[in-house]
Specification:
By secondary structure, this protein is mainly α. It folds into 2 domains: 46 residues, no CATH class; 40 residues. It contains 3 helices and no strands. Helix 1 runs antiparallel to helix 2. It is rod-shaped, with a radius of gyration of 28 Å. The model has no long low-confidence stretch (mean pLDDT 84).
């Protein structure tokens, strides 16, 4: 999940975009931006990079196993079709 520091940085960047004539509202908008970002990002079903990488490795191993089983199945089918039938 995105940490609080990242959310604060995003809120500060958004606050910096507020025109200078609204300087008094900038702090209030910064807090509102932070709350909206936390709420919106909290609703997303996000995973960490580490969790993503672990699942990617699991998927690759699973794919390799399936390919191995497909080769074994093809070899078994070939040997069965090569046997004479009675």
């Amino acid at each position: 999940m995105i940490n609080a520091v990242t959310i604060d940085e995003l809120a500060q960047r958004l606050s910096a975009l507020v025109p200078s004539g609204m300087k008094e509202a900038r702090d209030d908008l910064g807090r509102n931006f932070r709350a909206v970002l936390q709420s919106g990002l909290g609703k997303l079903d996000l995973v960490t990079r580490e969790e993503f990488d672990v699942q990617r490795c699991v998927l690759l191993r699973t794919r390799e196993k399936i390919e191995q089983l497909e080769r074994q199945l093809a070899a078994l089918e070939a040997s069965l079709s090569a046997q004479p039938r009675h």
